[in-house]
Amino acid sequence: MPENFKLYQNYPNPFNPSTRIRYQLATSGHVTLTIFNLAGQGIATLVDEFQSAGMKPVTWDGLDEQGR
To answer: Is the pTM of this model over 0.85?
Structure first.
């Protein structure tokens, strides 16, 4: 287990139409996972909740919060 958290490379990369993102939490806590564009703007929040420790997967469909 990592001391804090570990974010793994998304797969597949490049992706079409979706990609899977895995991360590992050493302890339980509130998790926020946000996708940012190259301009540094948050475009999609994939996770915003309390989670227990362990390996977690999330799938992103490449769309922003407005479905674009």
So the answer is: yes
